[in-house]
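To illustrate the input format used throughout this study, we show a single complete record. The first block contains the structure-token representation of the backbone; no residue identities are included at this stage. The design step must infer an amino acid for every position from geometry alone.
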């Protein structure tokens, strides 16, 4: 996990271009017109930039795409990264343009020439998000140290706004590091320790241990972890930037490894269940981001950290357990464990914090991958306004999200002969019945969104903004939703 590349901002200095190490990045608009920095690069390279820009290949680039000229003569750089992009380009295209540079960013960093680029922040965020690698378990040369980014810009306020970018990128990286980490390293204890370290950013962090959870009556959560050597924990993170307002509560599923328990999963692909704490990972990333940018909002993040293992002490199919709310659950399948963790943490969040809104995140069902693939997370809600706020934020951040239904008919699938409910609803609409289970633990007046992120938390193919593995999906969307809907003052 290479660190976040650091950023420096300087006024345009044509003399510094020739000697810059690493990559030099220039932006060329559709009409091919050069600004003065591009003109200097063209002079230094004796017209190579001009020839590249006039080439058929460059003409075929889509906005935001780039061609890299390796070891350009006349310059000290390793590569000249030429991006086809209008000065006014913002948003996703600008982020993806930055990401092409981020992917190529080596140890020697880059010089970005962006005089008055309107989407400079998006470009830089794209660089920071894509210049990520999870290499802490690789020994030797593979473990790259991060390069420095120098941004030459006439926008004197860009440096001041860069702090927010660093907050967002750090949050996403924190999530990715947690999700990528193997389960022998990221035990429940290690996870809680990494969250406790967030107190350095001004967050209040509490770790509830098994005796505390027993006292609170969180029996469904404890029933999931009782087959593991790692103790179950609930971590509560509070950011208080919003005065007396009731907080937004974020609740995350943190199953550090999901074997399925006694209802054991098949061997093939089981190693992927190291990411089954993805919901908790996103909650952690959002808490880091809001703290680093000193959001004027009250946000509380709660994660249930457990490991689902088969063992002599493990929960059996057919066992009945009592939730903190008091409702009893017949555990038909010990592999439907995420909902058992969430229901207790959600109930606790509502009892203790009386939140103005609650969002839970979980790698909850394989069924959501069948429904939506890896492009969209499943969104479920009891409140159209909150659902829209989330979907708008996700759309603005380019994070795929698609609403799916809830309804009484689905809830019926959870009826149990001997307890208040079963923990599974059969094969039809598996993601909906999982959400329906959670809905039973949401108080009537609490606006709630449930995000099933099983398909989006980690991607073996990577995305434009993330290399293969953990994506950090949801950190930007939730941060934006908080900024747009829940911040006080202005
Ligand atoms: N953690 C899994 C869901 C999952 C599957 C996440 C694939 C990421 C990728 C969850 O705990 C689970 O096992 N769900 C079961 C529920 C079933 C037993 C009702 C599933 O989806 O098969
Ligand atoms: Mn499971
Ligand atoms: Zn699971």
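Output of the design step:
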């Amino acid at each position: 996990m290479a660190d976040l590349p650091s950023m420096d901002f300087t006024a345009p200095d044509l003399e510094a271009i020739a000697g810059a190490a690493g990559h030099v990045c220039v932006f060329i608009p559709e009409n091919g017109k050069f600004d003065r920095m591009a003109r200097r690069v063209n002079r230094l390279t004796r017209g190579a930039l001009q020839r590249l820009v006039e080439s058929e290949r460059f003409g075929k680039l889509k906005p935001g795409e780039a061609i890299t000229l390796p070891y350009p003569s006349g310059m000290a750089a390793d590569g000249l990264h030429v991006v086809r992009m209008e000065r006014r380009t913002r948003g996703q295209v600008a982020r993806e343009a930055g990401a092409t540079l981020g992917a190529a960013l080596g140890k020697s960093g880059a010089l970005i020439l962006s005089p008055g680029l309107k989407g400079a922040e998006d470009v830089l965020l794209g660089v920071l998000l894509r210049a990520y690698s999870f290499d802490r378990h690789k020994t030797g040369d593979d473990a790259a140290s991060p390069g420095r980014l120098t941004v030459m810009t006439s926008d004197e306020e860009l440096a001041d706004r860069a702090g927010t970018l660093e907050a967002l990128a750090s949050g996403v990286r924190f999530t990715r590091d947690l999700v990528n980490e193997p389960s022998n390293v990221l035990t429940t204890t290690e996870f809680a320790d990494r969250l406790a370290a967030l107190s350095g950013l001004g967050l209040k962090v509490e770790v509830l241990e098994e005796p505390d959870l027993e006292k609170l009556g969180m029996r469904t959560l404890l029933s999931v972890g009782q087959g593991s050597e790692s103790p179950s924990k609930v971590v509560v993170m509070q950011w208080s930037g919003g005065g007396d307002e009731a907080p937004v509560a974020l609740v995350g599923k943190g199953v550090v490894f999901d074997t399925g328990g006694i209802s054991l999963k098949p061997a093939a692909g089981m190693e992927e269940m190291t990411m089954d704490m993805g919901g908790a990972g996103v909650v952690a990333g959002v808490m880091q981001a809001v703290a680093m940018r000193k959001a004027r909002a009250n946000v509380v993040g709660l994660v249930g950290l457990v490991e689902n293992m088969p063992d002599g002490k493990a929960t059996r199919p057919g066992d009945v357990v009592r939730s903190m709310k008091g409702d009893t659950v017949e555990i038909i399948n010990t592999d439907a464990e995420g909902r058992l963790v969430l229901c207790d943490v959600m109930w606790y969040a509502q009892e203790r914090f009386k939140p103005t809104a609650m969002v839970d995140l979980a790698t909850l069902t394989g069924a959501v991958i069948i429904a939506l693939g890896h492009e969209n997370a499943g969104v479920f809600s009891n409140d159209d306004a909150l659902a829209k706020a989330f979907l708008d934020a996700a759309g603005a951040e380019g994070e795929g999200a698609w609403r799916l239904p809830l309804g009484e008919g689905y809830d019926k699938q959870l009826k149990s002969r001997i307890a208040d409910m079963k923990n599974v609803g059969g094969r039809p609409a598996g993601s909906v019945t999982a959400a329906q289970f959670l809905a039973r633990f949401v108080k009537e007046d609490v606006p709630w969104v449930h995000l099933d992120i099983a398909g989006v938390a980690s991607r073996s193919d990577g995305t434009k903004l993330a290399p293969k593995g953990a994506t950090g999906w949801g950190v930007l969307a939730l941060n934006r939703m908080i900024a747009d809907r829940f911040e006080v003052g202005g």
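Structural context for interpreting the output: The chain has 16 helices and 19 strands. The domain at 7-154 is CATH 3.40.220.10 (Leucine Aminopeptidase, subunit E; domain 1).
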